[in-house]
Amino acid sequence: MKRSDIPSLDDLRAFETVARLGSVRAAAAELALTHGAVSRRVSKLSADLRLRLLEADGRGVRLTSDGEKLAEATGKSFSLITDTLAEIRSSSTPIPIILSCERSLAMRWLIPRLSGFQDRYPDVEVHLSTGGGGLDFARDRVTLAIRRLDFLVDPDWTIIRLMPERVGPVMLPSLRQRFESGDYVALGSRTRPNAWEAWFDEHMDAPRPRTTRLLDHHFLMAEAALGGLGVALAPQAIAADDVANGRLEAPLGFDCDGTDYGLIHPKSIIVSTGLSALRDWLTAESEISLRKYSKV
């Protein structure tokens, strides 16, 4: 077959998508076409090649032996084109790295340290966004994410564990006596409304508060503790810098809650020089924090 005899790329794309997803309807959704348009493109491809590529299978379709061969070839070809274009774009035009981080961790741990990365790698552009829980990297246009790993993770993700989540009560030094006597307000976060109850289950002898107040986020809870509004049950990563400089106290220390913070990106992503540098820097910073935390 001469190159001039190769069928339309649109028809090949429609067939490859049907073959990969196993459904004309699913292929239509991915390609943003109508069911009929996809069917017509696949039918035209079969006619042009004079080959039967699909056959009815109940309410769906399945590949013929010729269809399986073509599906394998088109799948590899389109993957190669996609990867090559991504590599060309990443090497010719610097693309900002979109780093998504949980809001409180971003404000209390990441942002205070991020200038160190910018000073070291001034040519790597990092855009910071905030979010929590699961995410869709393509839909959310995120390159790299830092998450507390308390949700079901995708097997197609690469996960680098950064540091364990450890929590404990923190307060102004002037409030310690009131904490020990039980004359205090327990500050919590609405993102973890049952955190104090879980902590008391593990610390049966700890003094109970006179009341509990929930704020929207952990960083607000930490600021409230700094403002003397009560005792915050804070993640160590959120409060450790203030404990280290003496602004807050953690008289009972911090305990692991069984979860970890992780650095996540799709396994399929092309790891650019900038992304590799950011990933290594974040890992190193978390190790530095862990060494400091061990002294708190």
From TrEMBL:
Recorded GO MF terms: DNA-binding transcription factor activity; sequence-specific DNA binding
SUPFAM superfamilies per the UniProt record, alphabetical: Periplasmic binding protein-like II, Winged helix' DNA-binding domain
GO biological process: DNA-templated transcription
UniProt keyword terms in alphabetical order: DNA-binding, Transcription, Transcription regulation
Matches recorded under InterPro entries: LysR-type_TF_proteobact-type, LysR_HTH_N, LysR_subst-bd, WH-like_DNA-bd_sf, WH_DNA-bd_sf
Annotated HTH lysR-type domain residues: 7-64
Family: Belongs to the LysR transcriptional regulatory family.
PANTHER family: HTH-TYPE TRANSCRIPTIONAL REGULATOR (PTHR30537), HTH-TYPE TRANSCRIPTIONAL REGULATOR TRPI (PTHR30537:SF74)
Protein name from the UniProt record: LysR family transcriptional regulator protein
Source organism: Rhizobium gallicum bv. gallicum R602sp
